[in-house]
Amino acid sequence: MARRAVGSPGSGNVTQVVERIREANAERRPLRVAAAGTWLDAGAPVDADDSLSLAGDTGIVEYVPGDLTLTARAGTTLADISAATRAHDQWLPLDPWGGDEGTLGATIATGTAGPHAHAMGQPRDVVLGMEFVTGEGRVVRSGGRVVKNVAGFDLTRLVTGSWGSLGVILEATVRLRARPQQTRTLLIPMKTTRAELSALALRLRAMPFNPIASELLNATFAARLGLPFHACLLMRAAGNEASVEAQVDRLRELGSIEDVDDSVWDRLRAAERGMDESSSWRWSRLPSEFGETWNAAEDATREMSDTFIHGNPARGIVRVVATATVKPKKLARLVRGFAGTVAVERLPRDAWSSLPTSNRTNDLARAVREKFDPAGILNPGIMGDLA
Amino acid sequence: MTAAPVPTSTPAPITPALADTLGQIVGRSRVIARSSELLVYSSDGLPGYTKIPSLAVFPGTRAEVVAVVRELAKANVPFVPRGAGTGLSGGALADGVVLLGLNRLRRIIAVDTANQLAVVEPGVVNTVLTRNVAQHGLHYAPDPSSQAACTIGGNVAENAGGPHCLKYGVTLNHVAAITAVLPDGTITSFGNAHGEPTGYDLLGAFVGSEGCFGVALDVTVRLQRNPQAVRTMLADFTSLDAAARAVSAIIAKGILPAALEMMDANTIRAVEASIYAAGYPVDAAAVLLIELDGFEAGLDDDVATVVDLCNAAGARAVRVAADEAERAKLWQGRKKAFGAMGRVSRHLVVQDAVVPRTKLPDVLALIHEIASRYNVRVCNVFHAGDGNLHPNIAYDAENADESARVHKAMREIMEACIAAGGSITGEHGVGLDKLVYMDQLFTPDTLDAMCGLRDVFDPGRRANPGKVVPIHSCREWHAAPSARRGAAT
Questions:
Q1: Domain limits at A210?
Q2: Is 70 exceeded by the pLDDT of residue A11?
Q3: Residue A372 and residue B421: Cβ atoms within 8 Å?
Q4: How confident is the model at residue A358 (pLDDT cuts 50, 70, 90)?
Q5: Among residues A182, A357, B168, B271, which one has the fewest Cβ atoms lying within 10 Å of its Cβ?
Q6: Do B297 and A242 touch (CB under 8 A)?
C-alpha cells in the first residue's frame, strides 16, 4: 500500500492539512488519519491508500495553570503534557491504555478512557474545545477555553470519539486537575464468582467516597504486573492525609489489603504494549450486573491463554485483551448473546466482518457522517457500518 | 455533495383544521388559540422579550406528544418545545408558531437505586426528582437557581448548570440516555443506561441543543449519592480583587469545592434588604459562599485550608455555618438573589458570560468601570469557581434613556468577556438573547457546521426556529457548493 505522509511542526500545518483534505475530497481519495500511530491497529479496517499524519503538529499553545486549562496541538504526546503540567502540580487525567506515547488528538478522537476515567472523566468530560477540519476542508473551532460553555450546538462532543471520521482534530483545549495531596494504592484479592462481583460493584458505589481509580484484574494480568497470581482489585485513594487514611480503613471491609506502589497504574496501562496480534474489546452492562459481564468475558476467552481481563466494577465495564487469535464466529456468537454493549477496539482484520452490526446501525449517525464528510474520505470504514 | 436538503417550502400557516386535529389528540381544553390566553406564554424567565405563539398545545402523555409532533410535521408547521418557561435566554418563546408545552409529562417512570439511575418524563420538576429519591440517600445533582420550578426536559435542552456543577458537572454529565421524537416524528434513542459509548456521541449533541433537535420523551439520569458531610462557609472581603484571588488560590490548591459562589456589594445589599436576608455583611465589597462536601474524614482539614487561603488573600472574616439551618439561610440569599433584585426595579437583565478564572479580577474591574460610565447599577452574583459571571442590571424598561444605557453597558460587558477569552453563555443557552454575539464568538465555518448538525436532526428547521445560530449563518450552509468553494479559496 502506497502511503504518502504529510505533516510539519507548528500551526502552519493548518493550511497544509486543509489543502490536503480538499484535494482528497475533490479526488475522492480516502485518507487514513493518524498521529503517533500507537492505536493504528485499533478500529475497524480503514480502506485508504493515503495517510495524513498529525504527528509533526506538536506543541502546547497555551497553558494557564491558574485556570487549570491547557491548549495543545493534536500531535502533542500525553507524555509532553504530563511533563508540562507536573511542574505545576497538575495533571491531565486522560490515561488511555498503552501509555503516554500517544497523542492528545488521538486520545480524544478515539475517546479512549483508562483506569482513572470513572472518577476523573472520559475525554467527553475533559475536552473544552477544539479546532478540526471537516471532510470538505473547512476549519471549525468549536467550544472554547473556559470550563463551562453552552454557546451553540456541541460540535466538540460530536467529534470526540468519532475516530477521525467527522473531522481531523488539529488542536484541543482540555481541563486539568490539581494533583491530589496524597495517594495510596491498595491491592485486595478478590473472588470472581458472579454473585461476589455484582455485590462488589454495588458496595463500591455505596462507599461514601470515590477512589480516583479502581480496577479489577484477572490472575493472568495480575501476574504480568508482578502481583500475586490471583484475581485482585487495585484501588487508589486520594485526598488529604486524614481522608486517605479513612478511605483505606473503609476499603479493609472488602478484604485483606496490601500496599502497592503507585507506579502500578502506569504498568497496568503499558502491559498490552507490544502484544502481537492482540484483540481487545469492552463489555458493559449495569454495575449491578457486573458479575454477568465479567463471566461473559471469561467465557469468551476460556480456550485462550495469556488473556488479560480487567474492569471497573462501579462503572460496569470489563475489558479483554487477548493475544491469541480470536475465532471470529465464536466472538460474533458471544457478542450477539450478550445483553449489553460490546465496543470492539482491535480484532484481526478478517474478524470484523463477522461482527453483528445491529447496535451501531443508526440512520442519524450516518446522516451526520454524510454532512461532515460527504465524500467519505476520512478514515472510511473505521466505525464499521457507521462510517 | 453536502447534499443538504434546503427546506423546500415556507412553513405553513396554522389553520383551524390543524387546531381541531390537535384538539382531538390532546383534548380541546388543552389547545389554546385565544390570543388573550396565549399572552401567558409570551415571555420566559428573561424579561425584555415578548413573543406570542399562534397556538399552544399541552399533551399529557408520551403518545400524545408523538402524535402532535407528527401532525405538525405533516402540516409543515414550526413549533417551540417548552417546559416550565423559566429559561433565561428567550429560548422557549414561540413567535407566531406553535408552542408545545411539556409540563404535563410529570411521571417518574423508574428509579433504580442500586445503579443510581432514574427514568423520568421531560416535565418532571428538578427538585421533585430529588425529593422522590431522597429516602434512598440520593439526589439529582444539577441545581439551577430555578430548580423548584424548572423541568428536567428544559434542563436537558439548555444543558443547565447551577452552583454545585463546579464539582459534580453540568446536565450533560448526569444524563445517560434519552428517547426523543425528532421533528419529523421519528422516535429515536441516544446513549444507554450503563453509559458506555458506542458510535457518535449524539447524546452529547442532543443535550444543550435548545429544543432545536427534537423533543425528549424520557430521560435516563444519573443520581448522586448524598455527601456524607457538608461544610458551608461565608468569607467576607473588602475588595472584589481579593475575593477573586481567593477563588484561584482554593482551586489551585487542589481542593474542589462543591460550590464556590461570589456576590458583590450591590448584590449583598439587595439580598439583605429583602425577605431573603441571609446575614451577609452589608459593608463587604464581596462575599464568597464556599461549600465543601464528601467524605467526613479529612473534610475539616480542607475547611481549615480554605479558611487559611481566604485569610491569606485578605478576607476580613470567614464564618463556617454551625448547623443545617444556618447553611440553608446562607444558601437562600444566594439562590434568591435574582428575586431580591426584583425589589430594586421592575426589570432585570441578566447575562451568563464565562471567563477564564484568572481573568476574574480584571473583568470584574472592567465591569465596574463600564457600569460607572453608563451610570447603571450592575450586580454581580455568580459561579466564581468556574468563572461563570451573571452580571445583572435592575432598571426601569419604561425609561427609554435608562434602557438604552443598560443595553449599551451590557453589550460592552459581553464584549469584554469575549475579549478576555470567554464565552457568552455558561448555562443559560443562546436562545434569542445571545444570538447577536454568536458571530463574535465563532467563525462562519463553525456556525455553518452547527447548522449542518441541526439539519441532520431537523432538515425542515421547524423545531425552535430562529434560535441559537443566527439565520444568516445557516443560509450559508445551503449556498451552492461551487460558490462556497470559490469564497473559501
A1: 182-268
A2: no
A3: no
A4: low
A5: A357
A6: yes
Q: Residue A85 belongs to a domain with what CATH number?
A: 3.30.465.10
Single out the residue in A244, A268, A292 at which a domain terminates. Answer: A268
Q: Are A317 and A331 in the same domain?
A: yes
Shared domain for A20 and A81, answered yes or no, is yes
Chain A residues with CB under 8 Å of B461 CB are none
Closest partner CB to B358 (pick from A66, A178, A282): A66
Beta bridge partners of residue B286, listed in sequence order: B237, B264
- Over the stretch A276-287, which tens digit does the pLDDT of each residue have? 678 899 999 999
Residue A188 shares a structural domain with residue A252: yes
Note whether A253 and A208 are same-domain residues.
Answer: yes
Which residues in chain A are closer than 8 Å to B455, comparing Cβ atoms? Answer: 371
**Any B CB within 8 A of A26 CB:** no
Burial of A216 (0-12, 13-18, 19+ CB in 10 A): buried
Kindly tell me the burial class for residue B89, based on how many C-beta atoms sit within 10 Å of its own C-beta (0-12, 13-18, 19 or more). buried
Q: Is residue A96 part of a domain?
A: yes
B342-366 burial string, b = 16+ CB within 10 Å, else e?
A: eebbebbbbbbbbbbbbbbbebbeb
Chain A residues whose beta carbon lies within 8 Å of the beta carbon of residue B457? 364
Answer yes or no: do A154 and B357 touch at CB < 8 A: no
Chain B CB within 8 Å of residue A284 CB = yes
Name the DSSP letter for residue A99: -
Instruction: Check CB contact under 8 Å for A153 and B252.
Output: no
Q: In chain B, which among 332-371 make CB contacts under 8 A with chain A?
A: 354-358
DSSP assignment letter at A168: E
* ipTM of the prediction: 0.95
Establish if A148 belongs to a structural domain. Answer: yes
Which of B159, B297, B356 is closest, CB to CB, to A145?
A: B356
- Which set of grid coordinates corresponds to residue B134? 431522597
| Residue ending a domain, choose from A178, A205, A240 | A178
pLDDT digits (tens, 9 = 90+) for A68-100: 999 999 999 999 999 999 999 999 999 999 999
Query: Are A204 and A57 contained in the same domain?
Result: no
pLDDT at position A113 is: 86
Q: What is the CATH number of the domain that holds A319?
A: 3.30.70
Q: Which of B161, B198, B209 sits opposite A153 (nearest CB)?
A: B209
**What domains, with CATH codes, occur in chain B?**
16-101 (3.30.43.10), 108-225 (3.30.465.10), 229-342 (3.30.70.2190), 442-488 (no CATH)
Task: Tell me how many residue pairs between chain A and chain B have CB atoms under 8 A apart.
Answer: 262
Residue B244's identity, in one-letter code, is A
Q: Mark whether A60 and A173 lie in a shared domain.
A: yes
Q: What is the mean pLDDT of each run of 10 residues along chain B (489 residues)?
A: 44 87 98 94 88 96 98 97 95 96 98 97 98 98 94 98 94 96 96 84 97 98 97 97 94 92 95 93 97 97 98 97 95 87 79 94 95 95 94 89 94 96 96 95 96 96 95 54 34
A153 and B468 within 8 Å at the Cβ level: the answer is yes
Predicted model pTM: 0.94
B248 to chain A: which residues are within 8 Å by CB? 66
Mean pLDDT of chain A: 91
Residue A369 lies in a domain: no
Per CB-CB distance under 8 Å, the chain B contacts of A281 are none
Q: Report pLDDT digits (tens) over A166-214.
A: 999 999 999 999 999 999 999 999 999 999 999 999 999 999 999 999 9
Contact (CB<8Å) A136/B469: no
Rounded CA-CA distance B226/B237 in Å is 31
CA B33 from centre of chain: 29
Q: Tell me, yes or no, whether A173 and A33 share the same domain.
A: yes
Q: What is the DSSP letter of B354?
A: B
Instruction: Report the alpha-carbon distance of residue B243 to residue B249 in Å, rounded.
Output: 10
Q: Is the torsion defined by CA of B129, B134, B136, B137 positive or negative?
A: positive
- Please give the tally of structural domains in chain A: 3
- Interchain CB distance below 8 Å, A158 and B201: yes
